[in-house]
Amino acid sequence: MNSGTVSNLVTTGVGSEAAPVEVDEPSSKRLRPATSDVWNFFKKLGPDKDGVERAECKGCKKVFKAGGKRYGTSTIKRHLDSCTQIKHEDIGQTIAELQLKMGSLKIDSGVARDMFAGYVVAGDKPFNMVDDRRFRNLVKYISPTLKLPSRNTVKADIVKVHKTEAAKLKKNLVSIPNRICLTSDLWTSSTNEGFICLTAHFVDENWKLQSKILNFCHMPPPHTGFELSSKIFTLLTE
Q: What terms describe the molecular function in GO for this protein (predicted)?
Protein backbone atom coordinates (compact mmCIF):
# COMPACT_ATOMS: atom_id res chain seq x y z
CA MET A 1 0.00 0.00 0.00
CA ASN A 2 1.28 3.46 -0.79
CA SER A 3 0.26 6.80 0.69
CA GLY A 4 -1.93 7.64 -2.32
CA THR A 5 -4.07 4.49 -2.12
CA VAL A 6 -6.91 3.80 0.27
CA SER A 7 -6.73 0.14 1.25
CA ASN A 8 -9.27 -1.94 3.08
CA LEU A 9 -8.51 -5.24 4.72
CA VAL A 10 -11.19 -7.80 3.92
CA THR A 11 -11.22 -11.18 5.67
CA THR A 12 -12.12 -14.15 3.44
CA GLY A 13 -12.13 -17.89 3.94
CA VAL A 14 -13.91 -20.60 5.86
CA GLY A 15 -13.85 -21.16 9.58
CA SER A 16 -10.80 -19.98 11.44
CA GLU A 17 -8.59 -19.78 8.37
CA ALA A 18 -8.74 -16.23 7.15
CA ALA A 19 -6.43 -14.17 4.98
CA PRO A 20 -6.35 -10.42 4.68
CA VAL A 21 -6.92 -9.19 1.13
CA GLU A 22 -6.10 -5.69 -0.04
CA VAL A 23 -8.83 -3.91 -1.95
CA ASP A 24 -7.59 -0.73 -3.60
CA GLU A 25 -9.97 2.14 -4.10
CA PRO A 26 -8.97 4.90 -6.49
CA SER A 27 -8.28 8.14 -4.68
CA SER A 28 -10.15 11.20 -5.84
CA LYS A 29 -7.84 13.79 -7.34
CA ARG A 30 -8.20 17.22 -5.83
CA LEU A 31 -7.69 20.21 -8.06
CA ARG A 32 -5.18 22.62 -6.64
CA PRO A 33 -6.62 26.11 -6.22
CA ALA A 34 -5.02 28.93 -8.16
CA THR A 35 -2.84 30.54 -5.51
CA SER A 36 -0.79 32.88 -7.69
CA ASP A 37 -1.52 36.58 -7.20
CA VAL A 38 -1.58 36.99 -10.98
CA TRP A 39 -5.10 35.51 -11.07
CA ASN A 40 -6.42 38.74 -9.52
CA PHE A 41 -5.95 40.30 -12.96
CA PHE A 42 -7.02 37.38 -15.17
CA LYS A 43 -10.27 35.48 -15.66
CA LYS A 44 -10.16 31.72 -16.27
CA LEU A 45 -12.04 30.71 -19.44
CA GLY A 46 -11.52 26.96 -19.19
CA PRO A 47 -10.09 24.65 -21.87
CA ASP A 48 -10.40 25.58 -25.55
CA LYS A 49 -10.99 23.20 -28.46
CA ASP A 50 -7.37 22.04 -28.26
CA GLY A 51 -7.85 21.16 -24.59
CA VAL A 52 -5.50 23.90 -23.38
CA GLU A 53 -6.66 26.21 -20.60
CA ARG A 54 -7.25 29.85 -21.53
CA ALA A 55 -7.21 33.01 -19.41
CA GLU A 56 -8.49 36.50 -20.25
CA CYS A 57 -6.83 39.71 -19.05
CA LYS A 58 -9.33 41.78 -17.06
CA GLY A 59 -7.70 44.95 -18.36
CA CYS A 60 -7.23 44.63 -22.13
CA LYS A 61 -9.39 41.48 -22.60
CA LYS A 62 -6.64 39.59 -24.42
CA VAL A 63 -6.74 35.79 -24.17
CA PHE A 64 -3.67 33.70 -23.34
CA LYS A 65 -2.80 30.05 -22.90
CA ALA A 66 -2.32 29.61 -19.17
CA GLY A 67 -2.54 27.03 -16.43
CA GLY A 68 -1.47 23.45 -16.18
CA LYS A 69 2.05 22.02 -16.07
CA ARG A 70 2.92 23.07 -19.62
CA TYR A 71 2.00 26.77 -19.62
CA GLY A 72 1.68 27.80 -15.96
CA THR A 73 1.47 31.54 -15.26
CA SER A 74 4.77 32.82 -16.68
CA THR A 75 3.19 34.15 -19.89
CA ILE A 76 0.43 36.11 -18.19
CA LYS A 77 2.88 37.43 -15.59
CA ARG A 78 4.98 38.92 -18.40
CA HIS A 79 1.84 40.42 -19.91
CA LEU A 80 1.15 42.39 -16.72
CA ASP A 81 4.31 44.45 -17.29
CA SER A 82 3.16 45.55 -20.75
CA CYS A 83 -0.61 45.76 -20.34
CA THR A 84 -1.75 49.33 -20.96
CA GLN A 85 -5.00 48.90 -19.04
CA ILE A 86 -3.53 47.80 -15.69
CA LYS A 87 -1.36 50.07 -13.58
CA HIS A 88 1.53 48.62 -11.66
CA GLU A 89 0.46 50.47 -8.52
CA ASP A 90 -2.84 48.56 -8.66
CA ILE A 91 -0.95 45.27 -8.87
CA GLY A 92 1.12 46.05 -5.80
CA GLN A 93 -1.88 47.30 -3.83
CA THR A 94 -3.96 44.23 -4.67
CA ILE A 95 -1.17 41.88 -3.61
CA ALA A 96 -0.76 43.77 -0.33
CA GLU A 97 -4.49 43.66 0.42
CA LEU A 98 -4.65 39.94 -0.37
CA GLN A 99 -1.74 39.15 1.91
CA LEU A 100 -3.23 41.23 4.70
CA LYS A 101 -6.44 39.20 4.49
CA MET A 102 -4.38 36.03 4.72
CA GLY A 103 -2.72 37.37 7.86
CA SER A 104 0.85 37.39 6.57
CA LEU A 105 2.09 40.48 4.75
CA LYS A 106 5.21 39.74 2.73
CA ILE A 107 6.95 42.80 1.33
CA ASP A 108 8.18 42.35 -2.22
CA SER A 109 11.10 44.76 -2.59
CA GLY A 110 10.65 44.98 -6.37
CA VAL A 111 6.96 45.92 -6.12
CA ALA A 112 7.74 48.34 -3.27
CA ARG A 113 10.39 50.10 -5.34
CA ASP A 114 8.07 50.42 -8.34
CA MET A 115 5.28 51.83 -6.17
CA PHE A 116 7.68 54.26 -4.48
CA ALA A 117 8.96 55.45 -7.88
CA GLY A 118 5.35 56.08 -8.94
CA TYR A 119 4.76 58.04 -5.74
CA VAL A 120 7.84 60.22 -6.32
CA VAL A 121 6.76 60.99 -9.89
CA ALA A 122 3.08 61.67 -9.11
CA GLY A 123 3.86 63.79 -6.05
CA ASP A 124 6.83 65.60 -7.63
CA LYS A 125 8.98 64.53 -4.68
CA PRO A 126 12.77 65.05 -4.52
CA PHE A 127 15.01 62.02 -4.84
CA ASN A 128 16.80 62.80 -1.58
CA MET A 129 13.64 62.27 0.47
CA VAL A 130 14.92 58.73 1.08
CA ASP A 131 17.86 60.27 2.98
CA ASP A 132 15.59 62.02 5.47
CA ARG A 133 16.15 60.43 8.89
CA ARG A 134 12.53 60.83 10.01
CA PHE A 135 11.20 59.26 6.83
CA ARG A 136 13.58 56.32 7.17
CA ASN A 137 12.56 55.85 10.81
CA LEU A 138 8.89 55.81 9.78
CA VAL A 139 9.47 53.14 7.13
CA LYS A 140 11.59 51.10 9.53
CA TYR A 141 8.82 51.25 12.13
CA ILE A 142 6.19 50.10 9.61
CA SER A 143 8.36 47.34 8.13
CA PRO A 144 11.74 46.60 9.74
CA THR A 145 12.64 44.21 6.90
CA LEU A 146 12.05 46.71 4.07
CA LYS A 147 15.28 48.22 2.78
CA LEU A 148 14.88 51.73 1.38
CA PRO A 149 16.62 52.44 -1.95
CA SER A 150 19.23 55.16 -2.34
CA ARG A 151 18.54 58.33 -4.29
CA ASN A 152 20.47 56.94 -7.28
CA THR A 153 18.38 53.76 -7.19
CA VAL A 154 15.18 55.84 -7.10
CA LYS A 155 16.40 57.77 -10.13
CA ALA A 156 17.18 54.54 -12.00
CA ASP A 157 13.74 53.13 -11.08
CA ILE A 158 12.01 56.26 -12.43
CA VAL A 159 13.94 56.00 -15.70
CA LYS A 160 12.80 52.37 -15.90
CA VAL A 161 9.18 53.42 -15.30
CA HIS A 162 9.52 56.07 -18.04
CA LYS A 163 10.79 53.51 -20.55
CA THR A 164 7.98 51.11 -19.68
CA GLU A 165 5.29 53.78 -19.98
CA ALA A 166 6.81 55.08 -23.22
CA ALA A 167 6.66 51.60 -24.72
CA LYS A 168 3.01 51.28 -23.67
CA LEU A 169 2.21 54.66 -25.21
CA LYS A 170 3.86 53.71 -28.50
CA LYS A 171 1.83 50.50 -28.56
CA ASN A 172 -1.32 52.50 -27.87
CA LEU A 173 -0.64 55.05 -30.61
CA VAL A 174 -0.12 52.30 -33.19
CA SER A 175 -3.56 50.82 -32.45
CA ILE A 176 -5.46 54.12 -32.87
CA PRO A 177 -7.74 53.82 -35.93
CA ASN A 178 -8.10 57.58 -36.42
CA ARG A 179 -5.90 60.65 -36.62
CA ILE A 180 -3.72 62.25 -33.95
CA CYS A 181 -3.61 65.98 -33.24
CA LEU A 182 -0.31 67.46 -32.01
CA THR A 183 0.09 70.61 -29.92
CA SER A 184 3.32 72.22 -28.75
CA ASP A 185 3.78 74.60 -25.85
CA LEU A 186 6.83 76.81 -25.36
CA TRP A 187 7.73 78.52 -22.12
CA THR A 188 10.71 80.11 -20.41
CA SER A 189 11.78 79.31 -16.86
CA SER A 190 12.87 81.81 -14.22
CA THR A 191 16.47 81.20 -15.30
CA ASN A 192 15.60 82.14 -18.91
CA GLU A 193 15.87 78.55 -20.09
CA GLY A 194 13.50 77.61 -22.92
CA PHE A 195 11.46 74.39 -22.89
CA ILE A 196 9.02 72.71 -25.25
CA CYS A 197 6.22 70.28 -24.44
CA LEU A 198 4.80 68.13 -27.25
CA THR A 199 1.35 66.62 -26.61
CA ALA A 200 -0.71 64.17 -28.65
CA HIS A 201 -4.52 64.33 -28.58
CA PHE A 202 -6.67 61.50 -29.92
CA VAL A 203 -9.95 59.64 -29.46
CA ASP A 204 -9.38 56.10 -28.24
CA GLU A 205 -11.32 52.95 -29.15
CA ASN A 206 -13.83 53.73 -26.37
CA TRP A 207 -14.54 57.17 -27.85
CA LYS A 208 -12.81 59.00 -25.02
CA LEU A 209 -10.56 61.99 -25.67
CA GLN A 210 -7.00 61.31 -24.54
CA SER A 211 -4.10 63.73 -24.15
CA LYS A 212 -0.62 62.26 -23.73
CA ILE A 213 2.67 64.12 -23.34
CA LEU A 214 5.11 62.74 -25.90
CA ASN A 215 8.12 64.77 -24.84
CA PHE A 216 9.20 67.59 -22.55
CA CYS A 217 12.69 68.86 -23.17
CA HIS A 218 15.03 71.81 -23.41
CA MET A 219 14.46 74.16 -26.37
CA PRO A 220 17.32 76.63 -26.89
CA PRO A 221 16.73 79.81 -28.91
CA PRO A 222 15.95 80.87 -31.54
CA HIS A 223 12.28 79.86 -31.37
CA THR A 224 11.54 80.43 -35.05
CA GLY A 225 9.07 78.43 -37.10
CA PHE A 226 11.87 76.52 -38.83
CA GLU A 227 13.58 75.61 -35.54
CA LEU A 228 10.27 74.55 -33.99
CA SER A 229 9.34 72.31 -36.93
CA SER A 230 12.80 70.73 -36.90
CA LYS A 231 12.60 70.08 -33.15
CA ILE A 232 9.12 68.56 -33.36
CA PHE A 233 10.18 66.33 -36.26
CA THR A 234 13.15 65.12 -34.22
CA LEU A 235 10.93 64.36 -31.21
CA LEU A 236 8.45 62.42 -33.35
CA THR A 237 11.28 60.44 -34.93
CA GLU A 238 12.46 59.42 -31.47
A: DNA binding; zinc ion binding
Domains of the chain as residue ranges with CATH: 38-81 (no CATH), 104-175 (no CATH), 179-237 (3.10.450)
Residue pLDDT, tens place only, 48-77: 888 788 888 887 888 888 766 667 777 777
